[in-house]
């Protein structure tokens, strides 16, 4: 079945906010279950998954710093938020019969395993879904950068970024109905046009490792499997 897929081994990046649903904070179990079912469908087709979930639905380190708090402390709290989100999604996947493992860059051995590249590679070769928690394990780096790093380490074919909209636009389509969606962009164009795809460090990591960034809507039912097949609406950022 994997011969139906345009990209087989992928890193899926989800924002923490993607798990909130219509709530203002926290986790919506119905949304988590829907996302887990789409991942399970893709796994059944032969896709191999690494997943990074942000922590913005629980805590953002920069928000503490903006109020005069310590940025390092804030980022550490944000890393723990990503562990909580990863545990939630892993639990939903396991309940569907998909073996999912949480590997954290920040050691929390009583809760989940600590990330090593060799261990993650072994699990992924076995067909397990790996949730990479804890960012890079360092403050001042976004979860986008952490996801790009893991995509490079795991030699992924693509970096899939599930967002609120179905690709990259020249301006916010929520506020401008005439916004133009790009089918393709180069990393240089993203940086030159200051398009808010992800931070510059993540774009540079993906570019330097020849990993295409594929931006699509995680809220569109069936979009994940369609994207893996090269179908539907999405934007590819690649040289």
TrEMBL record:
The protein's name: Uridylate kinase
Keywords, sorted A to Z: ATP-binding, Cytoplasm, Kinase, Nucleotide-binding, Pyrimidine biosynthesis, Transferase
Class of enzymatic activity (EC top level): transferase
The species this protein was found in: Pseudovibrio exalbescens
Regulation: Inhibited by UTP.
Pfam families: AA_kinase (PF00696)
Quaternary context: Homohexamer.
A GO MF label: UMP kinase activity
Family, per entry: Belongs to the UMP kinase family.
Aspartate/glutamate/uridylate kinase domain segment(s): 8-217
Catalyzed chemical reaction(s): UMP + ATP = UDP + ADP
Summary of the function given for this chain in its UniProt record: Catalyzes the reversible phosphorylation of UMP to UDP.
């Amino acid at each position: 079945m994997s011969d139906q897929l345009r990209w087989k081994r992928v890193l899926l990046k989800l924002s923490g906010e993607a798990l909130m649903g219509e709530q203002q904070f926290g986790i919506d179990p119905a949304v988590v279950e829907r996302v887990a079912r789409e991942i399970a469908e893709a796994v059944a087709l032969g896709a191999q998954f690494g997943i990074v979930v942000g922590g913005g639905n629980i805590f953002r380190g920069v928000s503490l710093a903006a109020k005069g708090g310590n940025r390092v402390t804030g980022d550490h709290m944000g890393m723990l938020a990503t562990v909580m989100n990863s545990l939630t999604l892993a639990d939903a996947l396991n309940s569907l019969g998909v073996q999912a493992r949480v590997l954290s860059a920040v050691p929390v051995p009583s809760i989940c395993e600590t990330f090593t590249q060799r261990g993650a590679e072994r699990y992924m070769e076995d067909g397990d879904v790996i949730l990479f928690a804890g960012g890079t394990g360092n403050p001042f780096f976004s979860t986008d950068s952490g996801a790009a790093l893991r995509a490079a380490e795991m030699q992924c074919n693509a970096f899939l970024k599930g967002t609120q909209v179905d690709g990259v636009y020249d301006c916010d389509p929520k506020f401008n109905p005439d916004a133009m969606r790009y089918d393709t962009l180069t990393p240089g164009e993203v940086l030159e046009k200051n398009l808010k795809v992800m931070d510059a460090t993540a774009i540079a990591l993906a570019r330097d490792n020849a990993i295409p960034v594929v931006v699509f809507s995680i809220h569109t039912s069936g979009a994940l499997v369609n994207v893996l097949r090269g179908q539907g609406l999405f934007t590819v950022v690649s040289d």
